[in-house]
Amino acid sequence: MRMLFHVACDLEYTAKFPTTLILNVHAQRSASQTILEEQFAVEPAIKVSEFTPDGTANRFVRIETGPHENIAIRYAATVDCDFQTYRAGSVEATPVAELTGSIIPYLFPSRYCQSDRLNRLAWDLFGTIDNPHEKVVAISDWIHDNVEYLRGSTDSMTSAFDTVTQRTGVCRDFSHLGIALCRALNIPSRYFSGYAYELDPPDFHACFECFIGGSWVVFDATHLAHLNGLVRIGTGHDAADAAVASIFGAASCTRMQVSCDLADGQTFKPIDRKQLDARGVSLAPS
């Protein structure tokens, strides 16, 4: 299933003094995502460098504001995405003993995903479900039904344990809780940031991916995004690895506009929640 998307973001920052911004807004290049066209611009003309950390496909950009107080950033790309599906009932859990060294770290607790503190809750709620796909769908549904999506209710310090306690959050928090519960059940899971088609209101979106049946499969506990309408930006153990913006100095975002549009001449057929009972969706490994 191939879909062509136009993605873009416009960001403006105000810096109080010379500051370094590290942004993660570029679409990944991978077996599932081919970038056909791409533009990135910063005004005024200041020092910019791109880097990709070892072991990831995340494309970070480092921007040094220097003496400039107001910085405008524009990113736009046309991305060809290849979504794969599988029959949910046909997959089996992969024993930890058979996981590769690159997958095992996604079983461990991380800064925002304290799976060790949620172990009893995870096994009490979902431990009797054998099929790994059904188990993660049940986790996503439980989060959706028991955590209120409430903008402004959390901050950059909120963890999965906080979310399950206070029962409010945004997509970042829903994802961290999903990751933590999956890891507690021995399912490798990682954070996913991206552009999302028909997300309302338009914004960067966070989901999570689980390693099921030999592939990274995407889930969205908010139920706000089409799983076959995502363009991957970053992945990591949690948001600390794939934050849209990390600021070293003193700067604040004064404007953010994000878009993800379907290219002309295509018909989009979303994979909805009901279809998840029968099949899963994955982007090829990054």
Written overview of the protein:
The longest helix has 15 residues, at 132-146. With 286 residues, this protein is of the alpha+beta class. Helix 2 packs across helix 4 and helix 3 packs across helix 4. The chain has helices at residues 119-126, 132-146, 160-166, 171-184, 239-242, and strands at 2-15, 20-23, 33-43, 47-51, 60-64, 70-87, 148-149, 168-169, 189-196, 205-212, 215-219, 230-236, 245-248, 251-262, 279-283. The chain folds into two domains: 2-82 and 245-262, Immunoglobulin-like (Sandwich), CATH 2.60.40; 85-242 and 271-283, C8orf32 fold, CATH 3.10.620. The model has no long low-confidence stretch (mean pLDDT 95). It has five helices and 15 strands.
